[in-house]
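Question: Hello, beginner here. Any chance you could explain the protein record under this note? Any guidance would be welcome.
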Amino acid sequence: MQVFSNQYSVFIKSVLVTTLASLMSVSSLAQEKPAEATIPESEITALREDLAQATKASSSVEIRRACKGVIRGVQALLESAPDAPNRYTALELLFEGQKRLLTLEATESNRAAIYETCSQFRDAPDEYAETRFDADMILSEKELADADATVAERTEALKEMLARYRGTAAEWKSLLVGSLIATKLLDFDLEKQISDTMLERFAGDHKVIDFRRKKNMGGQIDAVFSGSYVAVDGSSMTFPYDRLGHQYVLYFWSQSDPG
């Protein structure tokens, strides 16, 4: 019995030593693993400023040259750190530069470059939802055109796109674009559904209200007035969205126009 106990004790010690050695090996590997390289934010900011200055150039030649310089600069940053955690920030800038260049040079090579950038955005997190939506729409249009899609297929693709962006920061944009496409496809049931969703989820959103007002050709629309606003004197005013309390009338005017 004593022999068995001693053998069991030796076995347990052996297992503990092996396990400890394995854990130390894993820990060592984790420490040796290099951290993912990050693209310097200062370099992205500098290139973004260059792109902003490009639009102020006096000639299209200068704008085109500046856009190409920014594109090359961003591509170099991405090549130096392809797995950088902030690579999508750089890709956003690349995408913007490519779109501006395409307006000046509508070549097949520039289109192909944009499609490639759009494909890289498909895995972008929701933090970049608005840019990802723009990229998704470009790729979707290309794929539907290449497939010579029917109206029914285009409608289904639009519904899937709206569902994909529901609950993200790009939902309002997807609804605005979706409303225009649904009208173009003469799918007035879908257009009504999108309009109802706007009213339900973005009734007080200024961008959506402005879009609905313009699309309604100046006609009357239902708009919710609620939220918190900062007055000229810096004080905060909150207008609740309910039917409780006292009724009130508000007058608004703009200081940007003497009239």
